[in-house]
Amino acid sequence: MNQPVFPQMRMRRLRSLSGLRDMVRENHLRVEDLVYPLFVYHGTNLKREIKSMPGQFQWSLDRLHEIVDQVVSLKIPAVLIFGIPHEKDDTGQIGCHDHGIVQEAVRLIKKRAPQLVVITDLCFCEYTSHGHCGPMVETAHGLDVDNDATLPLLAEQAVSHARAGADVIAPSGMMDGMIAAIRSGLDSAGFTDLPIMSYAAKFASGYYGPFRDAAESAPSFGDRRTYQMDPANAREAMREVALDVAEGADMVMVKPGLAYLDILYRVKSEFKLPTAVYNVSGEYAMIKAAAGNGWIDERRVVMETLLAFKRAGADMILTYHALDAAKWLIEDGTRS
Ligand code: PBG
Ligand code: ZN
Domain range for residue 98? Predict the structure, then answer.
């Protein structure tokens, strides 16, 4: 690069605390970038804090409006819905019911806040008694998820979410062929305009621990390594995303976030699609724990983390910090 050097050039000139520092800022976090994940739980009069996720709650349908109203008043544009049903079985059938927990939550939210974008997480691990992301089958290596048998069930669940009024379907199960199956299921039911946000590069991660408490979706045996990605693999992530794009994904996601910023950067650079990142439960728990002990400045670390996702290429950030971040953005905006 043809750049003058010291002492002609002093990088500090643009870092002074005058307004200039802000003018040369390359990336910005906006409230429009945020998606807030919500856990809807069966039963009534429930606002139960999730132990490993301080400040996050399981909500029953009759109290869901409390959190929806907060999201709306902070102008957060979208929520991601997870549901915990009252009964589970081998195949997670209840996940496809038109009056299932997610379907009812979607109806309720769209009625109360029609402008709020409602994204539904599409998977079976919350609905199966064994906690895996689809029905099981005996294989040479023991019990494993039956990939191909899961596909029509995913299409069925997607159509029920669509009928309830979901704005975006977000399949998170990492089944091969899931995007094509869901797309053709939605299309044949008439939902040709409903977008799919694929959890395209989802790694088998230790960072999902607190979420599995929150969604009661921990596998009762084994783990998800036969269908989620090996954290060592970056080239494979590009192939995963390429397949989902070819099958018709409208938006793609990288998950988890912080430990996978390189994947996020590569996915955005290569595919240039609207790209989401999931700042997952374990990442949230670490910040809350350290901040709770007074070891880090929570506000500063959260904003730095979310900005890092933007710098790496994220268009959307799914984060449990969304409410706090939105409040801080409002404060920052009115301070000057
Ligand atoms: C379900 C699902 C998981 C998360 C989102 N959807 C957990 C998993 O795959 O075990 C994790 C979210 C988080 O940790 O915040 N397929
Ligand atoms: Zn799952």
Answer: 29-332
Mean pLDDT of the chain: 96
DSSP 3-state of 251: strand
Determine whether 202 is an active site residue: yes
On whether the CB atoms of residues 178 and 152 are closer than 8 A, the answer is: no
173 lines ligand 1 (CB under 6 A): yes
Cα gap 254→261, rounded to integer Å: 9
Is 51 a residue of the active site? Answer: no
pLDDT tens digits, residue range 14-54? 998 778 998 999 999 999 999 999 999 999 999 999 999 99
Q: Report whether residue 121 contacts ligand 1, using a CB cutoff of 6 Å.
A: yes
* Amino acid occupying residue 316: M
Q: Which two tokens stand for residue 8?
A: 């002609």
Which contacts of 23-27 are long-range, i.e. CB under 8 A and separated by 24 or more positions?
A: 26/311, 27/307, 27/310, 27/311
CATH number of residue 48's parent domain? 3.20.20.70
pTM comes to 0.97
Q: Residue 333 and residue 25: Cα distance in Å, rounded?
A: 15
- Identify the residue whose C-alpha is closest to ligand 1 atom 6: 172
Structural domain includes residue 223: yes
Ligand nearest to the CA of residue 128, numbered in listed order: 2
Q: DSSP letters of 164-219?
A: HT-SEEEE-S--TTHHHHHHHHHHHTT-TT--BEEEEEEB--GGGHHHHHHHT---
